[in-house]
């Protein structure tokens, strides 16, 4: 998913029945992702590009739409979904994620229409996880029930903060009270399948205020929490404010402390960290996001969406990194003309694919297991690639990294330093895998 | 000289003219004009000159040059010496134009400065030669102009140029007056007993004070003020008088065409296609194409393939005669065959070799290593080719744990080192790691065993890693230099403090006029080798000038200081320091390392130690958190790009123990700076 704003980003829970199907959770749909035919299935990301306003920290691809062209947007999203599904020739969509932008501005019928388009063409299990990013505004809250009826079975709520002052300065269009109400309503509709996003490292925030805020959140939240450190992005209003000294950001030491304390606190509340920024209890993980980290195929639909899949439909044999056209108006024109708005296609070489599998896989606490790696790299096992390296040995000895009979993963300490570890692993991977080696089929 | 040009330039306000001049400089910094391009331009210019040959240039046509028409008494060999920026190259341009060697255009800016680095830095590194035809009182003269480098580091080149001359033009800026290098260059010429023609340049400048400069010259050099020629090389004012003085005052070379052929190799260049091009001064007899000549140094015989004049481009002729200066190509293929200072003679007429040059003494040493070991061979041949054109660089193979195989190179000075490095990068497209500059220390050994081992009681230490322990040494010695500083007297106080901080001892101080002071200091070379000159310039707003000459060795309390990263010594950073300077040097090095080593996953202790005693320490704190918060499907592309870049950067880092050090840290850290 891609151009989603920093709004909502996490998702929760094991997919369950689609709302209209009723019934209870029977099995974890992502199980079928472990099947050897990786090209037969994919997850689907759908991007809704519009926002009501610009958040002061967000530099994402989003548009403040002047006129209502939701109808045209919906039509085009359907059309592109159709085209790309055909191109990928997948038989099964394992999960769907509606991100943005602010997708909770769209009418529920939009999602119903898209899900119907998917179901018409491929197998979309009623149990498949269908997540929607929601801004916790009264308007959003009032539609939650309709979204469920349209087929959404998981909500990811962009709470960001429970401090009204902060929400204001971040440019969010909700207050903490509205956030709490939205969470409550979402939990009523999809119990166990509601995720909340919170942001730390905000201007003026202290370790203590962060801890208080987090405990408050833990009292009301469901079974999934995503924690993001606020990052200063060039070109945002916040960046300018910091530049000119109007706003100061917490130091690196402070944000590091916030992260570590939050990890501990969440752990004490029964949340298991399963990825750098994602925590779940009762196994309410986001299956959609896990499929990114596991290197599974995904189809990106909508302006600026990214995808990774083999275009079997036109005889393709290697996985491609695909990007859709960024500007909604241009994208709409392209979809109407040729059925899709794919702007860039980059075939991934064997090494490049393995690099992505490595970088994404290491974000998970469980890391990359041997079987999983072997699916992408049948010739060179994890031990062969990384076992001999002095640098890796040092990381193992210092306790940052673990390589054992389960596979390769970061330790608790190592995960916080992943971006310092990855370059070393990438250097090793490149050394071991000749770029000239035959490309994998994926 | 063109009258209209003078008029036009005089009409331009001074400020603008200065600006114009500056801009031309700057422009040449940006351009990547290479030596070859210029060569072509000259070639094209030549025929034009021939057709319009005027009073001053009668003999331009290639085949028409009959050098036998120039007996010794119609030849003058001279060079121009000056402090940097006093207008040496501009005067050379004018002389070339006036004698028709090059077309008179606005573009003639430092024509003799062929190297990109020369144009960029506004300095002359490599001496160039140009033969000029000049008509004086109805007689045709052959004037050989040998351009000289203008920086302290290159005084060796100056002395080589001087050996081929009978006279010099000593240029002094009418505004700045005598500078340190004017003094140094004067003594080089004076000791070689050359005729010295003082030329006061830039009289067109608003602040020009030729009177004052004349009295300085009288006072410092004991040359009567009447002998000074006031000129503006830029405008061409009185340049004709300079040419007349060259003919009238400089004696012709003492050489006879009747003697056997005998020539001095005073410079050499390497040409990819033709091999070695040697610049020679013919001291006797004659030489022609096809002659069999012998190098006195190697005793090897060669056949002359081509010879001729340099105008300043190569201009082939049939013969070269006694007293003349030109180039010769004789199938020399190897660097070592063209020894500068060598004597050439005819195979059938052996002669006694001319006194050669003492090899240039390297005073600054630095390690050079390829960025990547796979570039070793390429770098080796680049260094070989460059040292052919710059024989003053000494080359010694070296290897380092961190940097792999490389060389320890000896340079005349720090600018020389920088220029060499820049030429290596620009002309041979080679990127190198340069380690700390050091000076050659000596140790007087006390242990009989070691003396026997080394074959002498005194050893020279070029590499700090080989610094012998105090216990086996009765005395350490460090190289000294006698520095000359010329400055407006308002800066004297600051300069004296600076010199004192550099362990210098004042030897002398004279007012050369009512505002300018000449000071002489005895410095440990080590103290001035890195940044002394920059500091001197900045604290005197650019007005003070500095030059030095070697002044032997003196006993010094030297110690070896190690730099440790997490307890591991970094061989490249080992330094020999004076005990008094150990703490400040060590502290500064630690601080700079702290700034140039990126944070890592663990704490890094940076220590300066003498033996087992740590004298300074800095700490780089470990990263506590370094991971991107969000990474979903749409983030992968951007994230991968970032990580791949980091991975590439990682490959370029050097590992010292578990610490990764960016390569350029070695260079940046070792540049000594005072706060």
UniProtKB/TrEMBL annotation, chain A:
Calcium is among the record's keywords: no
Primary location group: mitochondrion
PROSITE patterns: RADICAL_SAM (PS51918)
Pfam families per record: HemN_C, Radical_SAM
Domain of life: Eukaryota
Alphabetized GO MF terms: 4 iron, 4 sulfur cluster binding; coproporphyrinogen oxidase activity; metal ion binding
UniProt KW Mitochondrion keyword: yes
GO terms, biological process: porphyrin-containing compound biosynthetic process
GO CC, any one term: mitochondrion
Keywords: 4Fe-4S, Chaperone, Heme, Iron, Iron-sulfur, Metal-binding, Mitochondrion, S-adenosyl-L-methionine, Transit peptide
InterPro entries documented for this protein: Aldolase_TIM, Coproporphyrinogen-III_oxidase, Elp3/MiaA/NifB-like_rSAM, HemN_C, HemW-like, rSAM, rSAM_sf
SUPFAM superfamilies noted in UniProt: Radical SAM enzymes
Domain Radical SAM core: 36-272
Location in or out of the cell: Mitochondrion
Function comment: May be a heme chaperone, appears to bind heme. Homologous bacterial proteins do not have oxygen-independent coproporphyrinogen-III oxidase activity. Binds 1 [4Fe-4S] cluster. The cluster is coordinated with 3 cysteines and an exchangeable S-adenosyl-L-methionine.
Recorded family membership: Belongs to the anaerobic coproporphyrinogen-III oxidase family. HemW subfamily.
Name assigned to this protein: Radical S-adenosyl methionine domain-containing protein
Lineage, top ranks: Eukaryota, Metazoa, Chordata, Craniata, Vertebrata
Automatic annotation (TrEMBL), chain B:
A GO biological-process term: positive regulation of translation
Annotated CDD domains: EF4_II, EF4_III, LepA, lepA_C
Keyword Mitochondrion listed: yes
Entry keyword annotation includes Hydrolase: yes
Subcellular location: Mitochondrion inner membrane
Catalytic activity: GTP + H2O = GDP + phosphate + H(+)
Topology of the protein relative to the lipid bilayer: Peripheral membrane protein
Any Pfam family the entry gives: GTP_EFTU
Domain of life: Eukaryota
One GO cellular component term noted in the UniProt record for this chain: mitochondrial inner membrane
InterPro entries the UniProt entry points to: EF-4, EFG_III/V, EFG_V-like, EFTu-like_2, G_TR_CS, LepA_C_sf, LepA_CTD, LepA_IV
Keywords associated with the record: GTP-binding, Hydrolase, Membrane, Mitochondrion, Mitochondrion inner membrane, Nucleotide-binding, Protein biosynthesis
Domain Tr-type G: 73-254
Chief location bin: mitochondrion
Free-text function comment from the UniProt entry: Promotes mitochondrial protein synthesis. May act as a fidelity factor of the translation reaction, by catalyzing a one-codon backward translocation of tRNAs on improperly translocated ribosomes. Binds to mitochondrial ribosomes in a GTP-dependent manner.
Name by which UniProt lists this protein: Tr-type G domain-containing protein
Species this protein is from: Oreochromis aureus
Gene name per UniProt: GUF1
């Amino acid at each position: 998913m891609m151009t989603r704003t920093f709004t909502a980003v996490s998702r929760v829970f094991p997919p369950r029945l689609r709302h209209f199907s009723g019934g209870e959770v029977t099995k974890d749909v992502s199980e079928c992702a472990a099947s050897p035919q990786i090209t037969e299935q994919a997850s689907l990301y759908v991007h809704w590009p519009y926002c009501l306003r610009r958040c002061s920290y967000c530099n994402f691809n989003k548009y403040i739409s002047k006129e209502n062209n939701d109808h045209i947007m919906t039509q085009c999203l359907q059309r592109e979904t159709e085209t790309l599904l055909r191109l990928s020739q997948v038989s099964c969509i394992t999960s769907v994620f509606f991100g943005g932008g602010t997708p909770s501005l769209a009418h529920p019928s939009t999602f119903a229409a898209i899900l119907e388009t998917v179901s018409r063409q491929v197998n979309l299990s009623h149990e498949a996880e269908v997540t929607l990013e929601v801004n916790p505004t009264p308007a959003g809250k009032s539609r939650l029930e309709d979204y469920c009826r349209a087929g959404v079975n998981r909500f990811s709520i962009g709470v960001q903060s429970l401090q009204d002052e902060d929400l204001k300065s971040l440019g969010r269009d909700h207050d903490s009270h509205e956030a709490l109400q939205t969470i409550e309503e979402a939990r009523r509709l999809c119990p166990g399948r509601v995720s909340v996003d919170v942001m730390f490292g905000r201007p003026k925030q202290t370790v203590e205020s962060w801890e208080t805020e987090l405990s408050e959140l833990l009292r009301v939240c469901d079974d999934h929490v995503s924690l993001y450190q606020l990052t200063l992005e060039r070109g945002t209003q916040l960046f300018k404010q910091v530049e000119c000294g109007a706003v100061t950001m917490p130091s690196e030491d402070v944000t590091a402390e916030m992260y570590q304390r939050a990890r501990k606190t969440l752990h004490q509340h029964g949340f298991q960290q399963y990825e750098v920024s994602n925590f779940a209890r009762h196994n309410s993980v986001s299956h959609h996001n896990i499929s990114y980290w596991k290197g599974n195929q995904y189809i990106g639909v909508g302006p600026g969406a990214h995808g990774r899949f083999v275009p079997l439909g036109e005889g393709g044999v290697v996985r491609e990194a695909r990007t859709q056209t960024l500007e909604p108006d241009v994208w709409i024109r392209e979809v109407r003309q040729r059925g899709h708005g794919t702007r860039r296609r980059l075939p991934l070489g064997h090494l490049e694919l393995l690099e992505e599998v490595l970088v994404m896989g290491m974000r998970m606490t469980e890391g990359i297991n041997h079987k999983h790696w072997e699916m992408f790299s049948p010739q060179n096992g994890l031990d062969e690639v990384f076992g001999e390296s002095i640098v890796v040995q040092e990381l193992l000895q210092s306790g940052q990294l673990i390589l054992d009979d389960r596979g390769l993963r970061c330790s608790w300490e190592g995960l916080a330093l992943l971006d310092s570890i990855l370059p070393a692993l990438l250097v090793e991977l490149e050394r071991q895998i000749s770029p000239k080696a035959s490309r994998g089929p994926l | 000289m063109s009258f209209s040009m003078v008029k036009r330039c005089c009409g331009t306000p001074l400020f603008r003219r200065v600006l114009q001049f500056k801009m031309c400089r700057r422009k040449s910094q940006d351009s990547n004009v290479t030596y070859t391009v210029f060569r072509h331009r000259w070639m094209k210019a030549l025929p034009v000159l021939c057709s319009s040959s005027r009073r001053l240039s009668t003999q331009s046509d290639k085949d028409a040059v009959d050098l036998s028409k120039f007996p010794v008494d119609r030849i003058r060999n001279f060079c121009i010496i000056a402090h940097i920026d006093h207008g040496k190259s501009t005067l050379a341009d004018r002389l070339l134009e006036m004698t028709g060697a090059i077309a008179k255009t606005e573009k003639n800016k430092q024509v003799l400065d062929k190297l990109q680095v020369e144009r960029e830095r506004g300095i002359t590194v490599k001496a160039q030669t140009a033969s000029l035809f000049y008509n004086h009182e109805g007689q045709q003269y052959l004037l050989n102009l040998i351009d000289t480098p203008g920086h302290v580091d290159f005084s060796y080149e100056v002395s080589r140029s001087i050996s081929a001359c009978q006279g010099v033009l000593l240029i002094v800026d009418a505004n700045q007056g005598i500078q340190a290098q004017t003094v140094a260059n004067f003594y080089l010429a004076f000791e070689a007993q050359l005729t010295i023609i003082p030329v006061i340049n830039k009289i067109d400048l608003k602040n020009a004070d030729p009177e004052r400069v004349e009295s300085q010259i009288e006072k410092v050099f004991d040359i009567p003020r009447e002998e000074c020629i006031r000129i503006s090389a830029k405008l061409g004012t009185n340049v004709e008088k300079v040419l007349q003085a060259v003919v009238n005052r400089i004696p012709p070379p003492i050489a006879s065409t009747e003697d056997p052929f005998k020539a001095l190799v005073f410079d050499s260049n390497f040409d990819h296609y033709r091999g070695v091009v040697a610049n020679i001064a013919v001291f006797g007899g004659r030489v022609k194409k096809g002659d069999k000549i012998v190098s006195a140094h190697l005793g090897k015989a060669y056949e002359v393939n081509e010879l001729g004049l340099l105008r300043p481009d190569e201009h082939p002729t049939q013969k070269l005669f006694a007293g003349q200066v030109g180039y010769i190509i004789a199938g020399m293929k190897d660097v070592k065959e063209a020894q500068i200072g060598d004597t050439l003679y005819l195979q059938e007429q052996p002669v006694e070799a001319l006194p050669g040059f003492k090899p240039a003494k390297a005073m600054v040493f630095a390690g050079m290593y390829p960025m990547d070991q796979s570039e070793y061979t390429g770098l080796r041949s680049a260094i070989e080719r460059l040292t052919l054109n710059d024989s003053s660089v000494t080359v010694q193979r070296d290897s380092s744990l961190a940097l792999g195989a490389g060389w320890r190179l000896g340079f005349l000075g720090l600018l020389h080192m920088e220029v060499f490095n820049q030429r290596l990068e620009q002309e041979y497209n080679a990127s190198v790691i340069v380690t700390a500059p050091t000076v050659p220390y000596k140790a007087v050994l006390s242990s009989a065993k070691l003396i026997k081992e080394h074959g002498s009681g005194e050893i020279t230490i070029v590499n700090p890693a080989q610094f012998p322990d105090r216990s086996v040494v009765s005395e350490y010695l460090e190289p000294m230099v006698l520095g000359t500083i010329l400055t407006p007297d308002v800066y004297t106080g600051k300069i004296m403090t600076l010199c004192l901080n550099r362990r210098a001892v004042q030897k002398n101080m004279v007012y050369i006029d009512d505002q300018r002071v000449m000071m002489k200091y005895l410095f440990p070379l080590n103290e001035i080798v890195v940044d002394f000159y920059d500091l001197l310039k900045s604290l005197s707003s650019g007005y003070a000038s500095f030059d030095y000459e070697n002044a032997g060795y003196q006993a010094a309390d030297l110690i070896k200081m190690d730099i440790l990263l997490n307890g591991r010594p970094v061989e490249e950073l080992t330094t020999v320091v004076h005990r008094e300077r150990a703490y400040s040097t060590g502290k500064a090095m630690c601080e700079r390392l702290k700034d140039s080593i990126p944070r890592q996953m663990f704490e890094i202790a940076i220590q300066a130690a003498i033996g087992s005693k740590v004298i300074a320490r800095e700490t780089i704190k470990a990263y506590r958190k370094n991971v991107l918060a969000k990474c979903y499907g749409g983030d992968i592309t951007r994230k991968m790009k970032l990580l791949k870049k980091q991975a590439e950067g990682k490959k370029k880092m050097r590992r010292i123990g578990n610490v990764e050090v960016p390569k350029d840290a070695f260079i940046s850290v070792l540049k000594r700076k005072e706060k």
